[in-house]
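Input record (one chain):
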Amino acid sequence: MTLLETSGGVQLSPQYIAGLSILATGGLVLMWTVFWRAVAQAKESVREILLSAGFFRTVAVMGVIAATVVLSLAGRLEGNITGAILSGIVGYVLGQLAGHGRTPARDQEE
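The corresponding structure, as predicted from the sequence alone:
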């Protein structure tokens, strides 16, 4: 795995990009293995988890983060685009958390 020098900076070789993709995939597989083992130990309903909207949001966010990191490290995305994608994800996640903390009583006080 080598780095290639170009006029625009350092370009990663295809082998390095493939290695990054394999590393990201391995990390996701490991994380999901830990998650499903925790679900099994807690005796939670797998069906309820798979049908929940929160599960799909989590999967989508994780996929976008993994793809963004790999593409950014591979030199396929510029730094400002990577920052925009990741900050958008952070804003989305924090917006979801803020929305869950509100109650009707709090809304009437403001």
